[in-house]
Specification:
With 301 residues, the chain is mainly alpha-helical. The chain has helices at residues 7-20, 30-52, 60-88, 91-94, 107-112, 145-148, 150-156, 159-195, 201-231, 235-240, 279-282, 284-292.
Length: 301
């Protein structure tokens, strides 16, 4: 099973290719610019989740922390858009449709995967604190080819940026799947070594919820990546990177007879079969975790 490329490996490959391409065919620096845009989208996803968890009556300290994050993110987006003129040309100024778009994650999507039913920090939509509409950089559209549209990119003569983003998105998907698997393995180990043996169940479950929040973030970033691959019409990659359902993240035991050959493996989610980061063959710790990833989950009292 071949090792799936990471985003850094894809970026390095594209940078090496840029050095060999004629200047008339590609703008040098485009790869780095695309990477920064993808990273900004990841920050947006994280900030959206943080805003959602504020509750209806956040403290001034919480609101100030979010405001700082928004201010920093807004500055980074402004710089990204300023540099975008170099790669997208003057057409971006004449096109207003991007201003009407948002990348806001639906509330249902935020709750659909990656979070534990036992998470005390998970809030209902009615308890959500609404940030001022005029200051929401987490909902701004980053002018990447996936948001502009492949047809418009063809009209603007920037098809090469589409291909580069597809390559980087493949690496991003591999990275997030690897992170999801590590998070799931960490959670399984916590159940076996901490929750079941801890004298303080409150402390033990706090550790589980901490991992759960990281898992939730990685799942949302992966979902965003898959949506962008759809916009880029990367059908070959979409056959590999399937949607992650909430059932895929549940720690459960459905093996009626553990003595039946290979029955345990049938319970593993599809993403355990992908050799991301080369961990399926070279990491003994990951292999051990795959064996206990679906251990029985104790009921929280």
């Amino acid at each position: 099973m071949g090792k799936a490329p990471t985003r850094k490996q894809q970026e390095l490959h594209l940078l090496n290719c840029q050095a060999r391409w004629p200047a008339s065919e590609i703008h040098h620096g485009a790869t780095t610019w695309l990477v920064s845009g993808i990273s900004l989208e990841e920050v947006q996803v994280a900030l959206l989740i943080d805003v959602k968890k504020l509750g209806k009556w956040p403290t001034d300290v919480q609101k100030l922390a979010i405001a700082w994050c928004c201010d920093r993110l807004q500055g980074q987006i402004d710089e990204f858009v300023r540099v975008a003129m170099t790669f997208l040309g003057d057409e971006i100024d004449d096109h207003d449709q991007l201003d009407l778009m948002t990348m806001m994650l639906d509330a249902a999507e935020l709750d659909s995967a990656g979070s534990s039913d036992d998470d005390p920090n998970q809030l209902d939509n009615g308890d959500r604190y609404d940030m001022p509409v005029e200051f929401t950089p987490e909902t701004m559209v980053i002018p990447l080819p996936s948001n502009i549209g492949i047809e418009r990119c063809a009209e603007w003569g920037i098809d090469n940026l589409v291909l580069q983003e597809i390559s980087l998105r493949e690496g991003q998907a591999n990275d997030t799947l690897h992170a999801i698997r590590v998070d799931k393995a960490d959670k399984a180990v916590l159940f076996c070594t901490t929750v079941q043996l801890a004298k303080s169940q409150a402390w033990a479950w706090a550790q589980v919820h901490l991992v759960d929040r990281i898992l939730h973030l990685n799942v949302q970033i992966y979902s965003k990546c898959c949506k962008q691959l759809i916009h880029l019409s990367a059908n070959d990659l979409l056959a590999k990177f399937r949607p992650i359902e909430k059932a895929d993240l549940k720690a459960t035991t459905v093996v009626a007879d553990p003595n039946v050959c290979s029955q345990r493996n049938s319970t593993l989610a599809w993403f355990w079969s992908i050799n991301v980061e080369g961990d399926s063959t070279s990491n003994d710790w990951m292999n051990e975790c795959m064996l206990i990833a679906y251990v029985p989950v104790p009921i929280q009292c």
